[in-house]
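Researcher: Go.
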Amino acid sequence: MTTVDPITLQVIQARLAGIVQEMQNSLFRTGYSTIIRESQDASCAVLNSSGEVVAQHVVLPLHMGAFPACAAAILKSYSTAEISEGDAFITNHPYLGGSPHAPDMAVLTPIFYKGAWVGFAANMAHKSDIGGTVPGSGSGNAREIFQEGLHLPPVKIMSRAQPVKEIEAVIAANSRTPALVIGDLRGQVGAARLGERRIVELMERYGKETVLESTELLSSYTESRVRQTIASWPDGESEGESFVDNDGIDLTRPIRVHVKITKSGDNLHFDFRGCSDQTQGPANIRPPLVRAACAYCLVTLVDRFLPINQGLARVVEAIFREGSVVDPRFPAAVNTYMPTALTVVEAVFRALAAFVPHKRIAGGSGSAALVLGGRDVDRNRAYVHYEIFSGGTGARSGKDGVSATAFHLSNCKTAPVEIIESEFPTRVERFEMIPDSGGPGQWRGGLGFARNYRILTEEVRFSMRTDKHSIEPWGTDRGKAGRKGCCTINPGTTDEKQLPSRFGDHRLRKGDLLRLERPGGGGLGDPLERVAEKVLEDVRQGYVSIDRARLDYGVVVELVDGAPALDLSATRILRGKKQKTTGKDNPPLL
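Model: Structure:
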């Protein structure tokens, strides 16, 4: 029988969320690298003593699965007697820990209250460089994790509040940017210490037993809330799949991500055994992250305000085939896992659409990570310029997609132009949305964007991990696909060269121009059913050209005194003709 009244429970829930948010703010404000300060590629959480998430501020939803896996590795490596107040553990190993890939270093510090160990304060943040074959440690051509940089099993970076200098020395010696990496790590420890203090203060206010019971009640509430919603869906089976361009080694072979979902009562079962075999290149992803991707999909379909905790993990039942791209065998490379993770989300959403048809979504741009590294001659120092992008989201039921944004699992921010130009020998010459890149539909896909970089120093090494350069973001329910992305060196010149979506260590010279175009999202519904006034507004905003308005939407827009204007009569005639060719008898929607 619970002893926590509902009001106290809500207060503790709010306090836990506030604590994790405060940890997150501390981490962002103490970050040395632009990856943490600007892109905000990091998450924080509070775990119980079993390693279960009791509160998380979700920047990167995949970390819902990564934190418990990291904690489980620590608990396997260290007995309770070896865990002391003032310790701080670190791990970045995808197989011996739970890190998505080597650059994501997790820091977990045990929380003690009056001598009793009650849980962990945890965070995970991407590092600018931890060795490997290329600057940034993210080669799209890696064939095993040993080529991806330094990997640490769970070890102590602090012991009884004293730094373990040897661990810091090993990390620094394996990084091209040691000051940034060590600075960021110390910021992670500081953010975790802040979480420790706040949890102790919470227990001082409400009592240890009340707080611990509340965390279990909140997890039970999340699980119950999700199961209640699932129970309202029809029983049955549904399958969904999506594809990744390639693995960086075999550029001709797409990677299949397939899921079969069985729904019975308040249970969902995810079967990923139909996915492609594990890849030679670094497109593989570990099962804890796949489960977290499934949990993310459920949050979006149930209630985006759900408390994020272990209750979500209890709902997700998933099986895998060992040796597949979503359950690779050690030492399969994993460093460019994010495009695969986003493809998992797409496949899951396609399968879940059968149960929740009013919450459909079309395919989106996926994610991109760009890394430029070398030596800044003017400042006489090594540098790693790292950025994370997304693009256009797919159209949603009753809504257009969002343009040039981060979404799904890749929630990181686009670094400001001013920061890039002030910290790296790179000039951003263009940053703009791409007209006609959103897939046509009754609800239009979000637009992709283009970003042009001028290289200002010699001998720059360029790596990228992204997707949707070969396979278009799909449309749904007669909606059309979004425009594919591309990466071009010196466009419009005799030296022009197209690069694949995933590669490592392409050499650039001073004066080269790098143009990255991000895909647009797919459309949803028949484009001929889009309200003509919406198409006109798209033309006015520069989202859709006059030509594509006519070809894709059957909407005739003319320039009157230099301003776009709708020709209703011509639009009615054109849409009527287009509908006849498709066999539809509905009157044209104006």
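Model: Residues 360-525 form one domain.
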